[in-house]
Design goal:
Helix 5 links the parallel strand 1 (69-70) and strand 2 (113-114). Helix 3 packs across helix 4 (44-61) and helix 4 (44-61) crosses helix 5 (90-109). This protein is mainly alpha-helical and 119 residues long. It has a two-stranded parallel sheet with strand order 1-2. The protein has helices spanning 16-19, 24-28, 31-42, 44-61, 90-109, and strands at residues 69-70, 113-114. It has one domain.
């Protein structure tokens, strides 16, 4: 993230004041964010931790009638998933990555709605 010219604190985290100077969408296309999405889709240990987190969220809110549904991965669209490819075809991404991911997420949410954005 050096290209954003951020100042970092003693723990190595960027200062919020600097972060807020950059429009959010610019971070979203960064290699670091793409790497994080790739890990969620392709690395089983990361994906399982994410599923456990979502299960804990669903369990916590299960009896709240004001919660009608969940968006498990906001804007989790086609990110560089496969080596050498910037973006794979949206239909293939949806079939090979989104569908299995959302099927597993649906197990956590029970009868609540699940909101999603196709790639």
């Amino acid at each position: 993230m050096a290209y954003f010219n951020l100042t970092y604190d003693a723990q190595g985290d960027p200062l919020i004041e600097d972060c807020l100077k950059v429009p959010f969408f610019r971070y979203y296309g960064s290699p670091e964010v793409n790497s994080a999405f790739r890990a969620v889709y392709k690395e089983e240990d990361i994906r399982e931790k994410y599923f456990k987190f979502q299960q804990a969220v669903a369990d916590h809110f299960a009896d709240m009638p004001s919660i009608i549904g969940y968006d498990p991965l906001n804007e989790g669209g086609a990110t560089p998933i496969e080596d050498g490819l910037i973006y794979i075809e949206h239909e293939r991404f949806d079939r090979d990555y989104f569908q299995p991911f959302y099927k597993k997420m649906g197990e956590a949410y029970g009868d609540k709605l699940m909101f999603f954005e196709p790639s």
